């Protein structure tokens, strides 16, 4: 269906696709009227009839060439606009010229099909798109031309076309490839997965894009253009996949770090200094304040001890006792230490360990190796001594004489 102003075409409905005219996506089954399209070797016609004879409706062609359908509303005592053939500026015939496509959601609305460039770029800069587009790479019929799919479009003007109602889409493609003048193909009927064939020859005119109820069009392209397009799509696909995965990984890493920090803080809170040095033994509640100050010991962080002993390296192991291994270590300040690490298999509990710390602290002797502190973290219990390269009295009191030199 065409609308003309004199000899100039102003609107084209597009070919019938089995459900509706290709250029009228708003023409759908409704409760007011039904419509039929008949196409055979003898005749072509379109009819419609009211479903409810009590409904009053009229179709109007306005002075400016807009086709409209109205229905009468008794409650309002007036006509209600029900359907307009021309919805927006993209319905103007051939607005974007040959090989141009109109998308009302874009600004500017007109653009060239992929692999095409404006024929007159300066005109396009001032919103005159009538000159259309030309191929960036010319077709080579003998050198592997292919087709690029454009989904959801209004099919081009069919004045220079050929159709067959019995062919399938694959046969349609092969038919087009065999004819060097064939520029595009599509199904003529979109019902039941698609059937029939429409071939276009010459320029493709009056294409527009729809968000819904459009049709698939396959445009002939040079092999080099198809390779470039596929390469571009692969890069976009990689970005679509890699960027979200990278962001997800970064988020997970941040969450892991936060949880790790919170866990360390919780573990530190479980063993504050006063609790380690004094314990919870009721028999010690009478201890005076000066005695408490004398018994205070530093609490070392597990990571600090692990770093000092090179993660409890076997090369730093001084020996083994019934309580567990002893390691040599060096703090960041350069001080050498000996670390008595309570074996996880030891039966000594937390209270017994605390009592041992208190006992050692109270019995500090000038001839003994000095107790520098302790560590109770990550289910670890350790005593940290001042390291002495030669044996001292503590070897006999605390069993270090059993260790290998």
TrEMBL record:
Apple domain residues: 141-222
Keyword Kinase: yes
Domain annotation Protein kinase: ranges: 312-405
GO biological process: recognition of pollen
Glycoprotein in keyword set: yes
Superkingdom: Eukaryota
Protein keywords: ATP-binding, Disulfide bond, Glycoprotein, Kinase, Membrane, Nucleotide-binding, Phosphoprotein, Receptor, Serine/threonine-protein kinase, Signal, Transferase, Transmembrane, Transmembrane helix
Transmembrane portions of the chain: 241-262
EC number: 2.7.11.1
Record PROSITE patterns: PAN (PS50948), PROTEIN_KINASE_DOM (PS50011)
SUPFAM superfamilies registered for this protein in UniProt: Protein kinase-like (PK-like) (SSF56112)
Annotated organism of origin: Vitis rotundifolia
Class in the EC hierarchy, top level: transferase
Single GO MF descriptor: protein serine/threonine kinase activity
Reactions that this protein is recorded to catalyse: L-threonyl-[protein] + ATP = O-phospho-L-threonyl-[protein] + ADP + H(+); L-seryl-[protein] + ATP = O-phospho-L-seryl-[protein] + ADP + H(+)
Protein name (record): non-specific serine/threonine protein kinase
């Amino acid at each position: 269906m065409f609308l003309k102003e004199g000899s100039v075409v102003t609107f084209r409905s597009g070919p019938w696709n089995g459900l509706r005219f290709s250029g009228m996506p708003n023409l759908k089954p409704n409760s007011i009227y039904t419509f039929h399209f008949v196409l055979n070797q003898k005749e072509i016609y379109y009819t419609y009839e009211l479903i409810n004879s009590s409904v009053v409706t009229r179709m109007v062609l306005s002075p400016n060439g807009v086709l409209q359908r109205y229905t009468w509303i008794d409650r309002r005592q007036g006509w209600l606009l029900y359907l307009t053939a021309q919805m927006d500026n993209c319905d103007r015939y051939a607005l974007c010229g040959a090989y141009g496509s109109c998308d009302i959601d874009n600004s500017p609305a007109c653009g060239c099909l992929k692999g095409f460039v404006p024929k007159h770029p300066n005109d396009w800069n001032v919103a005159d798109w009538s000159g259309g587009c030309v191929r960036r790479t010319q077709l080579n019929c003998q050198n592997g031309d292919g087709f690029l799919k454009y989904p959801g479009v209004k099919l081009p003007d069919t004045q220079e076309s050929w159709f067959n109602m019995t062919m399938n889409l694959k046969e349609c493609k092969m038919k087009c490839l065999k004819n060097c003048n064939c520029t595009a193909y599509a199904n003529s009927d979109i019902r039941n997965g698609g059937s029939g064939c429409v071939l276009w020859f010459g320029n493709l005119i009056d294409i527009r894009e729809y968000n819904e109820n459009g049709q698939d069009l396959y445009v002939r392209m040079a092999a080099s253009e198809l390779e470039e397009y596929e390469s571009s799509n692969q890069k976009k696909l990689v970005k679509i996949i890699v960027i979200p995965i990278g962001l997800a990984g970064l988020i997970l890493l941040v969450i892991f770090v936060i949880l790790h920090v919170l866990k360390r803080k919780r573990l530190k809170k479980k063993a504050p200094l006063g609790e380690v040095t004094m314990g919870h033994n009721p028999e010690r509640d009478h201890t005076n304040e000066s005695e408490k100050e004398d018994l205070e010991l530093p609490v070392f962080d597990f990571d600090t001890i692990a770093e000092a002993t090179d993660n409890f390296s076997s090369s730093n192991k001084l020996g083994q006792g019934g309580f567990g291994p002893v390691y040599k270590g060096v703090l960041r300040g350069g001080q050498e230490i000996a670390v008595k690490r309570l074996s996880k298999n030891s039966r000594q509990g937390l209270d017994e360990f605390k009592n041992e710390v208190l006992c050692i602290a109270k019995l500090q002797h000038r001839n003994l190796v000095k107790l520098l502190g302790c560590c109770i973290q990550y289910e670890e219990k350790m005593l940290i001594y001042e390291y002495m390269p030669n044996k001292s009295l503590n070897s006999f009191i605390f069993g270090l004489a059993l260790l290998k030199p």
